[in-house]
């Protein structure tokens, strides 16, 4: 895989991403079922995708869109600060980020999908 596509992710990041794909959370499974195989307007998404030193929950390379799902741990102050730093680094790579809580994915799946499409429309402009 090209280093530009993964922004020089290390072999260790690739190994960890594979493990995460094999052990997805319920929210990740729900959204993946709706994103995989071009089910969302023919868009191609990858799950647990290595980029630089990070593993992105879902990624659409065509629009450089990162989709992150947040469980309860992301409400903790330290984790919020780490998330902000991570977002800043990803934005510096030219990526767009959208975040959803696991609860939103599980309880408002269609709304989450509409927000993803809205974000892509915004990126296209």
TrEMBL record:
<dbReference type="InterPro" id="IPR011335">
    <property type="entry name" value="Restrct_endonuc-II-like"/>
</dbReference>
<dbReference type="InterPro" id="IPR007569">
    <property type="entry name" value="DUF559"/>
</dbReference>
<feature type="domain" description="DUF559">
    <location>
        <begin position="15"/>
        <end position="120"/>
    </location>
</feature>
<dbReference type="Pfam" id="PF04480">
    <property type="entry name" value="DUF559"/>
</dbReference>
<dbReference type="InterPro" id="IPR047216">
    <property type="entry name" value="Endonuclease_DUF559_bact"/>
</dbReference>
<protein>
    <recommendedName>
        <fullName>DUF559 domain-containing protein</fullName>
    </recommendedName>
</protein>
């Amino acid at each position: 895989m090209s280093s530009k596509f993964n922004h020089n992710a290390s072999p260790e990041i690739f190994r960890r991403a594979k493990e995460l794909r094999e052990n997805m959370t319920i929210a990740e499974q729900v959204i993946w079922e709706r994103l995989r195989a071009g089910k969302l307007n023919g868009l191609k998404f990858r799950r647990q995708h290595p980029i630089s030193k990070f593993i992105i929950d879902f990624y659409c390379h065509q629009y450089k869109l990162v989709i992150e799902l947040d469980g309860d741990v992301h409400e903790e102050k330290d984790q919020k600060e780490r998330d902000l730093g991570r977002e800043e680094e990803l934005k510096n790579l030219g990526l767009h980020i959208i975040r959803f809580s696991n609860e939103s994915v599980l309880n408002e799946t269609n709304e989450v999908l509409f927000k993803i499409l809205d974000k892509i429309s915004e990126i296209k402009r």
